Amino acid sequence: MQEKGPVERVLRNEDVHQVVAEIPEGHQHLRLTVTLADGSSLTFQEATVAAVVRAYVAVKTHPLRKRAVLTGRLVRERKEGYAEWQLVEGG
After folding, report:
1. How many CB atoms lie within 10 A of CB 51?
2. In this structure, are strands 41-45 and 31-36 parallel, antiparallel, or unpaired?
3. 7, 27, 36, 83: which has the fewest Cβ within 10 Å?
4. Which residue pairs, CB below 8 angstroms and at least 24 apart, start in 67-70?
5. What is residue 13's DSSP assignment?
6. Residue 32, Cβ neighbours under 10 Å: how many?
7. In terms of pLDDT, which residue wins out, 2 or 50?
8. How far, in Å, are 5, 52, 65, 66 from residue 69 at the CA level?
9. pLDDT band, very low/low/confident/very high, at 91 (cuts 50, 70, 90)
């Protein structure tokens, strides 16, 4: 029996049907939902979107930098209102 490992998938623009960024009723934070052409969808919480944007900007705007790695970590000492589990640079 063959073991299944993680699946890597590269999404092209034509694979994406719709992107919705919204603050759902009764919530304070943004959620971003990407609906794919096959009907499946991925919803990201605001902290995840913010981390991806930080990584994108760090690489795209730096003259030499080619990579940013964010790793999920438990952060006990953090600013008020921040999640205990955060994507932080390093790893």
Report:
1. 19
2. antiparallel
3. 7
4. none
5. G
6. 16
7. 50
8. 21, 10, 12, 10
9. low
